[in-house]
Amino acid sequence: MLVEAFGNDGLIFLIAFLLLSGIVAAKFSSRLGLPSLVLFIAVGMAVGSDGLGIIYFDNVEIAQFIGILALIIILFEGGLQAKWKTIRSVAAPSISLATAGVFITALVTGGAVYLILDVTLLEAFLFGAIVGSTDAAAVFATLKERNIKAKMGATLEAESGTNDPMAVFLTIMFIELIISDDSSLWMLIPSFFWQMGIALLLGLAIGKLGYKAINKINLESSGLYPILAISFAFLTYSAVSFIDASGFLAVYVAALVIGNSELTYRYSIFQFNEGVAWTAQIMMFIILGLLAFPEQVFQLSNIVAGLLISLVLIFIARPIAVFLSTIKMKYTLKEKLFISWAGLRGAVPIVLATFPIVAGIEGAEEFFNIIFFVVLTSALIQGATISNVAGRLGLMGPVKDTPHHSIELISIAKANAEVVQFQTNRDNYVVGMKLHEIEFPTKSSIAAIVRGDQLVTPYGDTEIKEGDFLYILVSKKYHSQLMKVLNKKKDQAK
């Protein structure tokens, strides 16, 4: 092995090689029409003992730890990017999908597993619980660059960000029922409500504490603010998990609170977390790829069983769960069909598949191999066709409006001022007005306007148009007043 041959230098080279391989995989994933996670996993399997033989890795506990660490980062970044206004509109169906949907998926899939594999009923339902939830890492990464309608994207992202508690609860519950004769289903159920309720409350509380700390603490270096932000992700998970509640749910809720608040160094924080999330995603899927041995995963018996279970999961269990979970909710048939198809499996089922191995359940290694194959099948079949399915169902949204310019935004801590970026839309009161007509607060001035790829120098007679990016220098004292002016709607001015 490379690490044994060259020691620390070999390890450092290996990390660089894996990261560069992941970046190349991400670059070509969209061209190949494949989700990046598939290529990341492929890199891990290629450099593993059944591939090039560079790394031998079979430590389930370390893989589990890396997976949890990476999921914290990915969930935090996803919550930061999510718009509360959009999430709020789909909160009820997303929570229904994240709870009842996961439960129904687990039961239907578990029933199929019982018929396909030679296992007990409890073991079959354990398998169903492990693959019952959609995966935040897979969903966030797959939807990020695709122009899916906002309602669909928000539903899927909110579901994947909040369904881990049910999946973890069901997985642990069935493990307890299998290995312990004293476990009772009725004794375990209250723990689910504890996990959900406490995680929600503490996520809100720590999120509020987080954005206040970011805005109030005056740090000497601007580079410390993104680190301060992500430290709250780890603090949230550890504090909530310590009292046996869902750390994953709490992290996502805390990130929603922080991301939808007015932050100093907002864009530095967002860019830093996006980069860290990509790093976490690359390393997590590569490590999970290393953990899987292709000779075992791709045995004929595992392929046959995995394909049958995947077909049931994709075409029967998931649609039944979606249609039952969204009864009397404002979703059209086409929208329900798309949500059914876009229920991607990814890192969470693979990480959960390590739980039975750590618990010492007989046959857990076979479960892991089949679940790994099911995840690959889901990513290849569903992930690679999401855009096509959305297009055929008429659920593609407008091209994502991202600026093609690069302006370094800074908060001038010692001067107690900052540069605010704001993109206008058709409903903003300021659209169509000239700068001298707008009552901006004291000690604020527009430094620049970016329109498309053009930099517009602002003058008093400059008219603000829809889609403009405004860069405004403002004293922190008048920040909230400025945002009220910018967010004012046309109908509010009548």
Automatic annotation (TrEMBL):
Keywords assigned by UniProt, alphabetized: Antiport, Cell membrane, Ion transport, Membrane, Transmembrane, Transmembrane helix, Transport
Subcellular location: Cell membrane
Keyword Transmembrane tagged: yes
Topological category with respect to the lipid bilayer: Multi-pass membrane protein
Family annotation (Pfam families): Na_H_Exchanger (PF00999), TrkA_C (PF02080)
TM helices/strands, residue ranges: 6-25, 37-56, 62-80, 92-116, 122-143, 164-180, 192-211, 223-240, 246-263, 275-294, 300-325, 337-361, 367-390
Domain of life: Bacteria
Record domain RCK C-terminal: where: 407-488
Listed Gene3D superfamilies: 1.20.1530.20, Regulator of K+ conductance, C-terminal domain (3.30.70.1450)
Family annotation (NCBIfam families): PRK05326.1-2, PRK05326.1-3
Protein's recorded name: Cell volume regulation protein A
Organism this protein belongs to: Alkalibacillus filiformis
